[in-house]
Amino acid sequence: MLLERPGTLKMERLHTPFLILAMVLIFLAVLIETGTALPGVLRGNQVPLANFQQLPPQVSTAVAHLNSDQQNEVAQLNKQERPPGLGVPYLALVDSIVLFTVALMGIALVLPERLQGRVQGIATLIFSLLLIVTALVLVLLAVGLLILMISLLLAIPFGTIIYLIIYGSFNRAGADIALSLIMLLKFGFATSLFLAQQRFLQSKGLVLLVLTSLLANVLVTFLLGIVPGFLVSITDAISAIIVGVVAIIWGIVLLAGAIISIIKVIQLGPVVQA
Questions:
Q1: Cα–Cα distances in Å, from 119 out to 11, 66, 262?
Q2: 255 exposed, middle or buried (CB, 10 Å; 0-12, 13-18, 19+)?
Q3: What is the mean pLDDT of the chain?
Q4: How many C-beta atoms lie closer than 10 Å to residue 23's C-beta?
Q5: Looking at the predicted structure, is the pLDDT value of residue 77 above 70?
Q6: Nearest to residue 88, comparing CAs of 188, 212, 224, 210?
Q7: Torsions phi, psi of 85, nearest 5?
Q8: d(CA 211, CA 190)
Q9: Residue 263 pLDDT more than 90?
Q10: In this model, does residue 89 exceed pLDDT 70?
């Protein structure tokens, strides 16, 4: 398990307001990542093909010679909503683990100690299974989208045109705003958790989880910023795949810890009853 035994934490001085503040901050970060707190910020904008730079000459020539049917198809595609991106929403997979972990800490403050092991083990087992399944499905969807985008981009000229219309206008400015705010909330969360109780630093699993969350944020920011604008959708999908895989790994770690915890509770059950 990622947590120290709650009973041990209760015996030491715990600044509950800071723990509550930490829970609120990480919860807000997850809301932003899922788009609930900042609706429309990550929505893509329509950008005319003429505004794209560094396009192959074959594409520019093809745009000028589209027939009426192809022009109608391009017009229909331009009316569609631009995809909001995957990297930022997929951060919620990792940060939901952080939120779940801190929530268990809060629950431990109100539950009787004899119930804490059972509740933590069962809750972690259910959460980890849901996390692994959800992350796996989302990773597969991101891989499929990445393959589609690369296939369209390389299918010069018309596939490239379709790619540029649908995926070439990634809202990098909106993503940067969201990522900056999320990182600020995460720093506030880490600070509040430390102020709640310095002993949390002794929990290697918890520290590693928080570092993973921060590094995932940095990774998405980096991959969105290293390529020209019309390629950002591709690196965004790559960042989503990496974050999703990281979430699956953490889910497996949680699952293993939950199974071990449940086995220990079962073994201690007869002793408790006696």
A1: 20, 63, 9
A2: middle
A3: 80
A4: 20
A5: no
A6: 224
A7: 95, 165
A8: 9
A9: no
A10: yes
Contact (Cβ atoms closer than 8 angstroms) between residue 55 and residue 153: no
Percent of the chain residues past pLDDT 70, beyond the cut: 72
Domain ranges for the chain: 6-43+74-269
**Positive or negative, the Cα torsion across 60, 62, 64, 70?**
negative
pTM as predicted: 0.81
Whether the Cβ atoms of residue 124 and residue 261 lie closer than 8 Å to each other:
yes
Highest mean pLDDT (candidates 5-19, 150-164, 231-245): 231-245
pLDDT score at 37: 47
| Residues 55/228/162/86 CA torsion (nearest 10 deg) | 170
CB atoms within 10 A of CB 17: 10
Biggest CA-to-CA distance, the chain: 85
For 19, the token pair is 């723990």
Amino acid at 59: V
CA R_g for the chain: 23
Q: Pick the more confident residue, 252 or 268.
A: 252
- pLDDT score for 119: 78
